[in-house]
Known about the structure:
This protein has helices at residues 2-9, 20-43, 70-93, 109-119, and strands at 50-53, 62-65. It is mainly alpha-helical. The chain has one domain (2-119). The protein is globular.
Amino acid sequence: MNWMVLPYRRYAQFSGRSRPKEYWLFALFLMIAFLAAIFLDGVFGLGGSGHYVEHWPLGYSVAFVDRGGPFTLILCLGSFIPGLAVAVRRLHDSNRSGWWLLIGIVPLIGSLWLFILLIWAGTRGSNRFGPDPLA
């Protein structure tokens, strides 16, 4: 659990390096948290537009929400800066500038390349962004 919430403790720290474990466990934590927030928005009827399916193949009624509500908004606002910071630190671990995050703007190819950069192993030993987080 420590690795999942470490980026919140390092809230706006864009300097230094982050291990792959810190980045990917935070990403997993956010995915689960967003699913829970969207679910809560739907349960309390706080989501944007949605539709209700009476006869679903599994035999029970289900409500689908296609936009988040206040729970999702609060999570999004509270996680934007830590998510950005941990991604920058992850790029620093492979000796790349945080500006490489902007490559994700390029449709498809940019997102795939950014994904590859984020899973790339970090440089061993110190680099221009700091000491090795594995050391």
